[in-house]
Amino acid sequence: MTRPLKGEITVPGDKSISHRSIMLGALARGTTRVKNFLQGADCLSTIGCFRAMGIPVENRGTEVLIHGNGLRGLKAPKRILDCGNSGTTVRLISGILSAQAFSTELTGDSSIQKRPMARIIAPLSQMGADIISIRGNGCAPLRIHGQELHGTHYNSPVASAQVKSAVLLAGLYADGVTQVTEPFVSRNHTELMLQAFGAHITTENKAASITPPEELYAQEILVPGDISSAAYFLAAGILVPGSELLLKNVGINPTRDGILRVFQNMGADITLLNPRVCSGEPAADILVKSGALHSTVIEGGIIPTLIDELPIIAVAACFAEGTTVIRDAAELKVKESNRIAVMAEGLSAMGADVEETEDGMVIRGGLPLHSAVIDSRQDHRIAMSFTVAGLMSDGIPDIKGQDCVSISYPAFYEDLEKLSN
Ligand SMILES: O=C(O)C1=C[C@@H](OP(=O)(O)O)[C@@H](O)[C@H](O)C1
Ligand SMILES: C=C(OP(=O)(O)O)C(=O)O
User: Fold this and answer.
1) At 374, phi and psi to the nearest 5?
2) Domains and CATH numbers, the chain
3) What percent of the chain is modeled with pLDDT above 70?
4) Which positions in this protein are listed as binding phosphoenolpyruvate (predicted)?
5) pLDDT tens per residue, range 171-203
6) Residue minimizing CA distance to atom 8 of ligand 2
7) Is the model's pLDDT at 257 over the cut of 90?
8) Residues of the binding site for 3-phosphoshikimate
9) Distance between CA 203 and CA 278 in Å, rounded?
10) Residue 1: which pLDDT band, with cuts at 50, 70 and 90?
11) How far apart are CA 352 and CA 364, in angstroms?
12) pLDDT tens for each residue of 202-254
């Protein structure tokens, strides 16, 4: 087991908000200035796509300038748009591309080419889009011939911010109001940012509606830290005995903060300090101290608010007293990897009692973990989750493909090192 983790870190900028800042900045009039932009590979893919459509983006490190050209200012790209490993890029951009006066093809790496795109093809087609999966398998590569779009009401079968956002972004160009309803409310960064850029958005219960604007207007954006990245240090701070960590400037939007509620329910010592609003998004510093956890049940409406954190929550549950049940989380199977199968397999290999179910996991806590060979499947959340499991295990696991952390948290291992000294 590792020494206690002590000190403070500022986790990198929020990935979801960073993507959206490039997209809306590109479609706005004027120069959008983004501070604390996440320099992760996924967000760089989004920058690459908009540069390929003629938008000058100056990436100066933590500050990015996007010289927007208005809602109709994108140009036909000369090549296939490469979305890399980023589901957010493919799905959100498809909403925008569906309404352009040109045709495009977009694709990404081998993981992206397996992820379901029928979920955006259906609502965008309902709006009049001409969008197909080139191989006819419901996945990327996609071909989109821009069309005139119609306002619609889409009742989404999944709680997915990527589906909701694709439809709302297409709704920027529709001939009337576009509304999306989802079974549970997913992250609302698109709605908040569209509103800030001057679009008329209303949200009521589980529905979000957009009235097409004349223009969007450039903004100054300060991106809060990503709670999905803070999650690994929250868990490590709770689990490694004697630890005390201050995680600075973390986004705590209620559509993203499920992990805080779950860990607090499990008995964790977490305190929110200096609550504030950061470019329309709630943020705070988070103080976490180590302590014992007990089991919990995670299901229903809280799932979309912690969907990317379930792998690290599963790790924490291995050290909680009692049986933790995660259900209603079948979405985890269609992320960068099948995160239910990969977590259950890896944690079991380390000696934990984890049962994979159709839509989640059953984790009986309390068994000691030992080292094992873990294949990250090039999934950043898997690599970081097993790194934290390794802090608590007897012998460091051999995690294959750890460099994939650069997707969402390039300095993850440096930050861990800093807190371990
Ligand atoms: O909209 C977003 O930025 C995201 C939404 C979620 O995906 P789904 O919309 O597929 O649930 C999440 O898993 C992903 O990491 C980022
Ligand atoms: C699922 C994720 O991202 P995306 O869907 O954008 O690939 C993630 O970051 O965990």
Assistant:
1) -120, 130
2) 15-222 (3.65.10.10), 224-420 (3.65.10.10)
3) 100
4) 15, 87, 115, 162, 339, 381
5) 999 999 999 999 999 999 999 999 999 999 999
6) 308
7) yes
8) 15-16, 20, 160, 162, 308, 335
9) 20
10) low
11) 8
12) 999 899 999 999 999 999 999 999 999 999 999 999 999 999 999 999 999 99
Angular region, 54: left φ>0, alpha ψ -120 to 50, beta rest: left
Ligand 1 atom showing the smallest separation from residue 334 Cα: 10
Residue 102: which of 121, 77, 76 has the closest Cα? Answer: 76
CB-based contact 287:257 (threshold 8 Å): no
| CB of 381 shorter than 6 A to ligand 2 | yes
Does ligand 2 have an atom closer than 6 angstroms to the CB of 40?
A: no
Q: What is the ipTM of this complex?
A: 0.99
User: Contact 265/27 with Cβ under 8 angstroms?
Assistant: no
Query: In this structure, are residues 92 and 166 in contact, taking their beta carbons and an 8 Å threshold?
Result: yes
> Of these residues, 14, 226, 257, 308, which one is catalytic?
308
* Matching residue, tokens 């400037």: 249
- Spatial neighbors of 383 by CB under 8 A, at least 6 apart, are 376, 399, 401, 402, 404, 405
Beta strands in 129-219 (DSSP E): 130-133, 142-145, 153-155, 178-181, 200-204, 207-211
Q: Check if 86 has its Cβ closer than 6 Å to any atom of ligand 2.
A: yes
Cα atoms in the Cβ-side hemisphere of radius 13 Å centred on 198 = 15
Distance CA 265, CA 239 (A): 15
User: Is-contact 370 350, C-beta < 8 A?
Assistant: yes
Looking at residue 395, its pLDDT comes to 86
Q: Which residues line ligand 1 (CB under 6 A)?
A: 16, 88, 160-162, 165, 186-187, 307-308, 331
C-alpha 338 to ligand 2 mean position (Å): 12
- Kindly give, in sequence order, each residue whose CB lies less than 8 Å from that of residue 106, ignoring residues fewer than 6 positions away: 49, 80, 81, 82, 83, 90, 93, 94, 97, 140, 141, 142, 144
Among 336, 337, 382, which is best to mutate for testing ligand 2, by the most ligand atoms less than 8 A from CB?
336
pLDDT tens-digit series, residues 310-353 = 999 999 999 999 999 999 999 999 999 999 999 999 999 999 99
308 is catalytic: yes
